[in-house]
Amino acid sequence: MLGRALTSTAWGMIADRIGRKPVIILSIISTLLFNTLFGLSVNYWMAIATRFLLGSLNGLLGPIRAYAVEVCRTEHQAIGLTLVSTSWAIGLIIGPAIGGYLAQPVEKYPKLFPANSIFGRFPYFLPCLCVSFFCLVILISCIWLPETLHKHKLHKTEDQGIEDFAEQQNSSTTNKSLLKNWPLMSSIILFCVTSFDDMAYTEIFSLWAESDKKYGGLGFSSEDVGQVLAVTGASILLYQTFVYPRIVKVLGPVNASRIAAILSMVLLFTYPPMTHLSKPWLSVVVNIASMLKNNLVVTVVTCSFILQNNSVPQEQRATANGLATTLMSFFKAFAPAGAGIV
């Protein structure tokens, strides 16, 4: 998280300078390399270092949102950005499953993985290796990925000189103009506050759900909590694919984000009374509330992506998304501590 916060804006500026495709490819290579090294960590500090480098050298989040907007026609931008958010929902389902089933394979599958193999020495290497293999497949597919940042050069020398001067002036004032761009900054603020709320909710929900009812919790087991999270992830996938594009088409991103933000805040007030329910109604209500809460958050976040990308010209789009990722990372980093204090 810290590594991503420190470098996301810089990666966005690089993507605006040399193109989206090179940054996407470099990010995938860094993920492949450092994710593999993380699985081969021999001590705590090596694990910390590889995760920090993975976050620092992975500039994917900003350019990929800019790419999703640029590769789609205007009327299909919501669908393009929905696919970005949907991939996150798929990761929520597949990621924990890969870690859960493939971690410590020597203990779980002793016939396939002997104790004296590399998987015995590094019990978490197998899930990391699977993710790295997937990154390799994606990296190969990027050969056919078209570039969306097109800079048409003029042929006349005088015009070329004017263009070079204008480009230098634009690059020197990019950060200043972005910070003064109120439509952009307001959408980034909305994105950061929503991300803070979502991270705090995620951290608190599991603790609250597993706490005993006499302490105001739900008395859920870890399996019950996992089931709620799995159902929620599946609902996000379906919602983003079939429902969200239609909502944005009817309401627009501004009205959709406003309504979703208000409903999300109202929904939180329904959580404390749930402790008075008993099964099976408790499980049903909690699952419904979790699905509604997370889909409302996804609505606000995806709408903020649309607003951010439409608030800046193409040559500043990746930088704007990188700035949003940087600020969001700082907000998410402090969210667990803030939620714990409250």
Automatic annotation (TrEMBL):
Q: What is its main location?
A: membrane
State the Pfam families in the record. Answer: MFS_1
Bilayer topology = Multi-pass membrane protein
Give one GO term, molecular function aspect.
transmembrane transporter activity
Which residue positions does the secretion signal occupy? none
> Any idea where this protein resides?
Membrane
Spell out where the chain crosses the membrane.
23-42, 48-68, 80-104, 124-146, 256-274, 280-307
InterPro entries attached to this UniProt entry:
MFS (IPR011701), MFS_dom (IPR020846), MFS_trans_sf (IPR036259)
Q: Which GO terms describe its cellular component?
A: membrane
What CDD domains does the entry give?
Answer: MFS_SLC46_TetA_like (cd17330)
Q: Which PROSITE patterns match?
A: MFS
**Mind listing the UniProt keywords for this protein, alphabetically?**
Membrane, Transmembrane, Transmembrane helix, Transport
Q: What is this protein called?
A: Major facilitator superfamily (MFS) profile domain-containing protein
Q: Which organism is it from?
A: Sorghum bicolor (Sorghum)
Query: Taxonomic lineage of this organism?
Result: Eukaryota, Viridiplantae, Streptophyta, Embryophyta, Tracheophyta
